[in-house]
Amino acid sequence: MILGTFFLIILYLILRYIFAWIKYYNNLDTRLGESTWRFTYDYPVVGERDISDLDDKEFVRLRRKKNKVILLMYSIVLIMFIASMSLLSKFLLFFTS
Question: How many domains does the chain contain in total?
Answer without folding.
Answer: 1
